Amino acid sequence: MTYKDDNFYLEQIRQGNTNAYAMLINKHKTMAFNVAMRICRNREDAEEVIQDAFLKVYYSMKDFEGKSKFTTWLFRIVYNQAISKIRKKNIDQNTIDEEIIDNFTAGEISNGLNELKAEEQTKYINLALAKLPEEDSAVVTLFYLNESSVEEVSEITGLSEANVKVKLHRSRKRLYDELKLLLKNDVNTLL
């Protein structure tokens, strides 16, 4: 289905068209779920988060001033709901065991990933993303998968732009290390 610009739906909502809200949510529900899933790491929790976030958006539509993009506002609500959810659950973060990482170069990892089918690449990248702390995984998802700018990620997460850049830099390094671990055997056979 081809969707119209968010501003079209926002104008329709202001005029009382509730179907426009449904279209707007349908347009962004997959990315909202991905953000929630990256933080919650649990499908049921992520579904609960986006339901709560969509309700919050619905009841707060009158407060949306349009100073930022609608998606920035929406993803900030999803992000905050997800962070609140994991804080309540006190989930322990996974750590990376750096001592067992072999010395592969970024090029070797990249070549190993290029040799894999797209489906396998996605699987390994998702496994590596799952090893990152929830907030870092969400920042990477917003920046790379949603193609949000650093400024937009900053608005969504409430982090400074400098902090977003640092998290992206550290997360890329952690992803690289995690991919080395995950692809260790595959890289050896592919090289």
CA distance, first residue to last residue: 42 Å
The second-level CATH architecture of the largest domain is: Orthogonal Bundle
Helix-strand makeup class:
mainly alpha
- Which CATH C-level class of the largest domain is it? Mainly Alpha
Task: Extract low-pLDDT stretches.
Answer: 91-102
- Average residue-wise pLDDT: 82
Query: Could you spell the SSE succession in H and E letters?
Result: HHHHHHHHH
Q: What is the CATH superfamily label of the largest domain?
A: Winged helix-like DNA-binding domain superfamily/Winged helix DNA-binding domain
Number of strands: 0
- According to CATH, the fold-level topology of the largest domain is Arc Repressor Mutant, subunit A
Q: How many distinct domains?
A: 2
The shape is elongated
* Biggest pleated-sheet summary: none
Percent strand: under 5%
The proportion of residues forming helix, as a percent range, comes to over 70%
Please tell me how large the radius of gyration is: 19 Å
Number of helices: 9
Overview of this protein structure:
By secondary structure, the chain is mostly helical. It folds into two domains: 6-89, Rna Polymerase Sigma Factor, Chain: A (Orthogonal Bundle), CATH 1.10.1740.10; 98-190, Arc Repressor Mutant, subunit A (Orthogonal Bundle). It has nine helices and no strands. 29% of the residues are buried. Residues 91-102 have low confidence and may be disordered.
